[in-house]
Amino acid sequence: SIAGLLLFLFLPAGGISGLTLPPVFAAASGFTVTDSLGRTVAFDQAPQRIVIAGRASSILADTVYLFPGISNRVVALSRTDQGLGSFLSLLDPHYSDKMHMGVEVSLETVASARPDVILLKSYLAEKLGKPLESLGLKVLYFDMETMEQFPRDLRTLGQLFQNDKRAEYIIDFFRRRTDRITRATAGIAK
User: What is the pLDDT of residues 138-185, one digit of tens each?
Assistant: First the structure.
């Protein structure tokens, strides 16, 4: 995934031992976030219990883990293995303590994690999201499928995590890398 590539690129050359992350930004009180479906969701404070659920959750998890300190707030996530194992366990010393769900997850399983917010891919809105919303749970939807959607969705995460600066840093980093690749491959025939 795009986020997995970015996560790999952000890791120090010597691996992750000794990696220190800046503290999570202080949570604002009372704010709203607009998701990929154009829905505005209100929060009293930054969510402390985050669930990443459903198919293609690896894209969301990879992106969430680009925000320093947020992994401490992830309490449950669906399988993020894309055939080679999940490298999130290398980044998160508490990875094994989290609730691990399958990609086909039940309403009850997600709700049992007592989430402050549930992050889902947009195409899961009808099948999983709306039933979760009917329980009074807060759900945010993300696309993260195209070069146009990725920056928009990163900004949404930046708002949710009260760390807009980190979102803009990641977007700029990605843009600079993409521009470099585009320039290097400009003369290659299609």
Answer: 999 999 988 889 999 999 999 999 999 999 999 999 899 989 998 998
CB atoms within 10 A of CB 73: 17
Q: How, if at all, do strands 50-52 and 40-43 pair?
A: unpaired
Map residue 113 onto helix, strand or coil: coil
pTM: 0.81
Residues 86-116 have pLDDT tens digits of 677 777 888 889 998 888 888 999 999 999 9
DSSP result, 176-188: HHHHHHHHHTTTS
Q: Which residues contact 81 (CB under 8 A, 6 or more apart)?
A: 58
Nearest-angstrom CA–CA distance, 177 and 91: 23
Residue 74 contacts residue 97 (beta carbons within 8 Å) = no
Cβ contacts of 182 within 8 Å, gap of 6 or more: none
Instruction: List all residues 6 or more positions away from 60 whose beta carbon is below 8 Å from its beta carbon.
Output: 3, 52, 119, 120, 121, 142, 144
- Find tokens 């009260």 and name the residue: 162
Q: Which pair of structure tokens corresponds to residue 147?
A: 């070069």
